[in-house]
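Exam revision sheet. Question 4 asks you to relate a sequence to its structure. Input first:
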Amino acid sequence: MSELHSFMFEGAPVRGRLVRLTDAWQQVLQRRAANSRTGAWPPPVAEMLGQMLAAGTLMVSGLKFEGALLLQIAGDGPVRLAVAEVQSDLRLRATATLAGSVPPGATLADMVNVHGRGRCAVTLDAASRQPGQQPYQGVAALRGADGQPFADVAAVIEHYMRQSEQLETMLMLAADEQVAAGLMLQRMPGKREDSDEDWRRLVTLARSLKREELLGLDAETLLHRLFWQEKLLRFAPLEGEEGPRFACTCSRARAAQMLRGLGEEEVRAVLHERGQVEVGCEFCGQQERFDAVDVECLFAPAATQPPAPETLQ
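Answer key, structure tokens:
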């Protein structure tokens, strides 16, 4: 089960969060892999998206905000756009648009920053946003002040948080085909004389974490492994219906509505040519298929439609 843990360090102005996306991440991958048109993402793209989803979950969980956080990386390589969307209630989804092949072992720079024009954007789209009101967006380059490209998503987000949010942040991310995970430490505003030493010590401990530990260890074991000498103030983890979970706005009903809008003549032409009509979600990859019987029902007069059930199924 996917879970999000929050904690603070007693006596130090530092907060931390740990996320493990398991079933939620696997659903993201499964939907895309089942798409007959696109198939699964190449492993480097899937790894990048998993890291982005973990980062987005950690970021939105630290905000007093209702709405969606969109983490987008737009590039000039074979990956034109990668998007991770996490709602404030921790519903999440991800997608990527490819314009070329991505070889095994491709780095972040190989995928989205070939000519140095890649950008990372963080958008906060408030649920209360009024028509015509623009969401907040911050943008950062995928290279540092020295002109060198960042090695991974974690370095990009750390840079963004320092430059745009003025918040010292340490972030570690990892993803494979089973788990997408992240650990974030943030230095709280307001300095004490000894807070620099506290921050450096805690960051050093956190950076001793290995990729395989971040992916493989449960939260209790991982936090004890890193901070067994520190006094942690733990909060109840968020999991299940309160925790990170996959959700997309697509549905069969919305696909049917789209086909009705397309028109009976065109839909029947596709049916005649292909034997079925297929509608795919551009975001999650879910495909809905309509055969001849389904198409007949779509365009049947209202009087001949079967009655709707009285209760929601």
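Marking note for examiners. The longest helix spans residues 43-60.
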